[in-house]
């Protein structure tokens, strides 16, 4: 008997396909049950340890995407003004020829550097990177900066590795401290399951957030913090840990550079000082430091996922990683670990198109990353929220063509109005999407990609304690005139004279290209949909074998990356300013049944959560005469929105909160059109200029009842 819960489905012509979910980027392994070329059920891959059949609501709702009449069905070329919704249906040849001709014109006039591509990093990113390099442009962008750019830089400044190289061993932890890492709503399925297991085994959870989230309600200890003051809390925790000698002296002596500088720096940061800043009682701070150290080294100060809240984000994220280092929890079971790839398991890594010899691109990036003014953000991702600024200012040069692939910059870069002005300056805007994103709606050409259930993608090398390979396979044939992205890129490249960098003619050829020399073949995926390359976790020896990638070979509290580029390792603490009278800080986030800006029009998910609401503290609401469920106007100096109030005691009085992704303007997305308000319309495009993330929660708003 098959171990699938769908086994009892009475399917004639039954097929079970192992694949990878793409309702969000977490990429959980799934099985898709197919009957007569239609998807009947999707569930988690039961063979994968830590997943064991689980799927989240969004993963199951992938079924709703497949036969959706509001999907993109054919290539479209715009015929009316931007946003007028006037399109001409085109063949693939017409649409691709049109784009190639425009790109060639723009290249001739402004140079290859004026062509940019922005995408949500995905399994085919080695293909899009190759495309941009082969064209001769430096301007390849991912979403990374908007999500976790400052965390990436923080990790590089301490360990020499990006955050992508790091994981948390929640399953074996004894105590985990989350700072607004709302793990039970902003999901990573495997991690949620690991955490639940650890909690059943007695692990403690401390949750810190100005808002009582679902994760807060599951925690052993919830601490309501004043928005934007977590750094003060961490400095006080370090103060207590150092003063009471709670740190792991042997580990710190071997692996940490700069303890004395830290000690001097946090000396004045007493728990009483932090209490005034954060609103968390001093005794709670002392207790937390002591309890965390009792659990060490199986303790995790969770460094977060989205790290794009405030302008000092890099220093906050650094402080979290330093707390782990002080308690010796880096590279240990139940703590934080460095992910190992195929190479660490003694195998040859997957081959990427970017391994080819590609033309060297010497131009500076249009976002300034890599120049002395903006040296630290990761140039392999760029800083995408600087793109609208660069387009508008034509500084350092004009950017005239933008291709977006699986990314919606209009909604995912703060300040909608400014983004719109930037897009209007482009001579060519192309969206590769599966539905009318907000950006697609204003594009010149829309290329419809087949959805993940209809297509395969490049094989995934999943690094971890036990590296493994996963594969996304088509489960059904495409419903409409759509194509997979890897094919779209190749077809476009051929028209631009760079086809030779895409040496595949089919999905199988692409897969075999990747697998070459690894000793692994496509057949190895047949039974379970993945290939394990090792059966035991790989840890580096904590006594002497941690391969840190910093110049000193240590965890650099005093950071050569920062200081060699003119930034301090320990800048003076600057308090975030409280909102001016009559204003609130606008906080944003996600919840369990929606993905960013992708799922608001999904037929099942839009039924579950059709709009967003504005969380507002009860006393503040009463003062403003706002009643539960009433429509309110939220206004910032950048824009406004109308939304229903959710009046509650469960949020700090300085803040209001809304889900990201609502307040949509595309009429052809009828299930979410005009529902709720958009955070992007209210936010200001301000960044952490050291780490690279936008400060999405920098903005203050007013709230008033409507009518
Ligand atoms: N204002 C504001 N901005 C934010 C955030 C916020 O909270 N507020 N959050 C930030 C964070 S953490 C992140 S990660 C980013 C995410 O930013 P985005 O990547 O822009 O958001 P997503 O919703 O993940 O996906 C964007 C687009 O991908 C399309 N898509 C989905 N599946 C496919 C597919 O298979 N193929 C193709 N071609 N397209 C597909 C969707 O239809 C959607 O239009 O946004 C960041 N920006
Ligand atoms: N269901 C679902 N799951 C997802 C995603 C999704 O779209 N949907 N997206 C994935 C992605 S790309 C990301 S980046 C992650 C995001 O995962 P998280 O970073 O865990 O989640 P967010 O929803 O962005 O929520 C941020 C939380 O921070 C709190 N917060 C705001 N200000 C402060 C502050 O000053 N201090 C503290 N301590 N807390 C504060 C907010 O109240 C909110 O609860 O989720 C991932 N998982
Ligand atoms: S968390 Fe949910 S939506 Fe995201 S990949 Fe996993 S099952 Fe799919
Ligand atoms: Mo994210």
UniProtKB/TrEMBL annotation:
- Keywords tagged on the record: 4Fe-4S, Iron, Iron-sulfur, Metal-binding, Molybdenum, Oxidoreductase, Signal
- Residue ranges annotated as transmembrane are none
Q: Which PROSITE patterns match?
A: 4FE4S_MOW_BIS_MGD, MOLYBDOPTERIN_PROK_3
Q: Which domain of life is it from?
A: Bacteria
Q: Which GO terms describe its molecular function?
A: 4 iron, 4 sulfur cluster binding; metal ion binding; molybdopterin cofactor binding; oxidoreductase activity
The name this protein goes by in its record: Molybdopterin-dependent oxidoreductase
Any idea where the 4Fe-4S Mo/W bis-MGD-type domain is? Answer: 14-70
Please name the Gene3D superfamilies in this protein's record.
2.40.40.20, 3.40.50.740, ADC-like domains, Dimethylsulfoxide Reductase, domain 2, Formate dehydrogenase/DMSO reductase
What are the names of the required cofactors? Answer: Mo-bis(molybdopterin guanine dinucleotide)
Which InterPro entries has this protein been placed in? Asp_de-COase-like_dom_sf, MoPterin_dinucl-bd_dom, Mopterin_OxRdtase, Mopterin_OxRdtase_4Fe-4S_dom, Mopterin_OxRdtase_prok_CS, Prok_Mopterin_Oxidored
Q: Which family does the entry's similarity section mention?
A: Belongs to the prokaryotic molybdopterin-containing oxidoreductase family.
């Amino acid at each position: 008997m098959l171990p699938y819960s769908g086994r009892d489905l009475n399917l004639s012509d039954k097929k079970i396909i192992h694949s990878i979910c793409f309702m969000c980027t977490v990429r959980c392994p799934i099985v898709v049950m197919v009957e007569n070329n239609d998807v009947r059920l999707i569930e988690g891959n039961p063979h994968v340890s830590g997943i064991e059949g689980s799927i989240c609501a969004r993963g199951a709702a992938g079924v709703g995407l497949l036969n959706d009449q509001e999907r993109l069905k054919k290539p479209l070329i715009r015929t009316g003004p931007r946003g007028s919704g006037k399109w001409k249906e085109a063949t693939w040849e017409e649409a691709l020829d049109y784009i190639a001709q425009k790109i060639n014109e723009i290249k001739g006039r402004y140079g290859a550097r004026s062509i940019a591509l922005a995408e949500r990093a995905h399994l085919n990113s080695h293909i899009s990177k190759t495309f941009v390099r082969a064209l001769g442009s430096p301007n390849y962008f991912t979403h990374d900066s908007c999500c976790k750019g400052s965390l990436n830089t923080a990790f590089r400044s301490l360990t020499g590795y990006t955050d992508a190289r790091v994981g948390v061993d929640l399953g074996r932890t004894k105590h985990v401290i989350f700072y607004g890492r709302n793990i039970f709503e902003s999901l990573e399925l495997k991690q949620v399951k690991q955490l639940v297991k650890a909690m059943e085994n007695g692990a403690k959870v401390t949750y810190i957030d100005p808002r009582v989230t679902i994760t807060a309600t599951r925690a052993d200890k919830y601490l309501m913090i004043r928005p934007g003051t977590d750094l003060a809390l961490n400095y006080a925790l370090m103060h207590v840990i150092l003063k009471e000698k709670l740190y792991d002296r042997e580990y710190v002596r071997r692996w940490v550079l700069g303890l004395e500088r830290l000690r001097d720096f946090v000396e004045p940061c007493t728990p009483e000082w932090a209490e005034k800043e954060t609103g968390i009682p001093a005794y709670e701070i002392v207790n937390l430091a002591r309890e965390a150290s009792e659990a060490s080294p199986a303790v995790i100060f969770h460094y977060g996922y989205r790290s794009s809240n405030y302008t000092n984000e890099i220093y906050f994220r650094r402080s979290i990683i330093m707390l782990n280092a002080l308690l010796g929890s880096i590279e240990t079971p139940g703590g934080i670990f460095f992910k190992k790839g195929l190479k660490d398991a003694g195998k040859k890594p997957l081959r990427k198109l970017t391994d080819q010899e590609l033309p060297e691109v010497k131009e500076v990036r249009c976002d300034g990353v890599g120049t002395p003014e903006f040296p630290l953000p990761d140039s392999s991702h760029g800083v995408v929220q600087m793109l609208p600024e660069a387009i508008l200012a034509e500084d350092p040069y004009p950017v005239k063509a933008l291709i977006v692939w699986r990314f919606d910059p209009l909604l995912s870069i703060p300040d909608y109005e400014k983004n719109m002005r930037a897009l209007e300056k482009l001579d060519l805007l192309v969206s590769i999407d599966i539905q009318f994103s907000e950006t697609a709606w204003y594009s010149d050409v829309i290329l419809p990609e087949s959805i993940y259930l209809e297509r395969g993608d490049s094989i995934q090398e999943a690094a971890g304690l036990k590296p493994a390979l996963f594969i996304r396979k088509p489960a059904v044939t495409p419903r409409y005139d759509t194509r997979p992205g890897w094919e779209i890129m190749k077809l476009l490249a051929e028209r631009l004279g760079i086809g030779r960098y895409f040496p595949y003619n089919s999905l199988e050829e692409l897969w075999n290209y990747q697998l070459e020399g690894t000793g692994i073949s496509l057949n190895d995926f047949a039974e379970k949909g993945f290939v394990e390359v090792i059966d035991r976790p790989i840890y580096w020896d904590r006594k002497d074998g941690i391969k840190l990638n910093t110049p000193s070979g240590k965890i650099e509290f005093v950071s050569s990356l920062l200081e060699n580029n003119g930034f301090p390792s320990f800048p003076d603490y600057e308090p975030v300013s409280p909102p001016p009278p009559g204003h609130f800080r606008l906080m944003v986030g996600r919840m369990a049944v929606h993905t960013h800006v992708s799922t608001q029009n999904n037929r099942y998910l839009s039924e579950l959560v059709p709009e967003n609401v504005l969380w507002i503290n009860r006393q503040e609401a009463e003062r403003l005469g706002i009643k539960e469920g009433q429509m309110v106007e939220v206004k910032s100096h950048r824009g406004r929105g109308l939304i229903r109030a959710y009046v509650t005691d469960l949020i700090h009085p300085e803040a209001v909160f809304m889900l990201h992704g609502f307040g949509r303007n595309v009429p052809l997305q009828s299930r979410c059109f005009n529902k709720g308000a958009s955070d992007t319309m209210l936010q200001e495009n301000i960044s952490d200029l050291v780490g690279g993330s936008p400060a999405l929660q920098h903005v203050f708003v007013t709230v008033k009842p409507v009518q």
